[in-house]
Amino acid sequence: RYAFGAQPTVAKWNLARFAESLLPLLDPDGDRAVALAEDALAGFDRVFSEAWTAGMRAKLGLRDAPAAPGRELAEELLALLGESGADYTGTFRQLTRAAMRERGGDALVVARSLLGGGTVAGQARAGSWLDRWLAEDPDPVLMARENPVSIPRNHLLAEALEAATDGDPARFVDLLEAVTHPYEERLEWARFAEPAPPDAGRFVSYCGT
Prior knowledge:
- The structure is a single chain.
- The protein contains 10 helices and no strands.
- By secondary structure, the protein is mainly α.
- The mean pLDDT is about 90.
């Protein structure tokens, strides 16, 4: 239910449950109430798709580019991320750096390495994707506004809460400051931009966390 790719389906499911609770207010006649709710929900897929495409185009710096290439590039990028296991937030920020450096330099090499996943075939697919993305002339200023550096990652939250529970609020205060200014790159906040270490294990969370 909480997987990234499941969010559209779950959002629609949640709205359907909400609509069920509103049926008595929509119409005294049960059948008409259901029809009204279904009509309202029928537009969800289109609205979500348009919003998702606009958001992903902005993250890729392609807000002014045609919608179709932007959506195709976004879908292909998510497939590359799934295959490589690259960090979602970190990858978008690395792409921002690559766009800032005028399509060359170490930033682009790092981006290819992240998306390639360490295989020859993966590196080839990543290189092809990067070439097509750069051909759309991504806007690095837009990307810097849309792609955060620091986010409240689970392992950081766990560390901060544990330390605060033991009487030391410093980690919590530092993390809060970083995520309050998520688009700023500061040397002292570098650890907040890193994914969880390989030995961190799976983080288990619940609705009441």
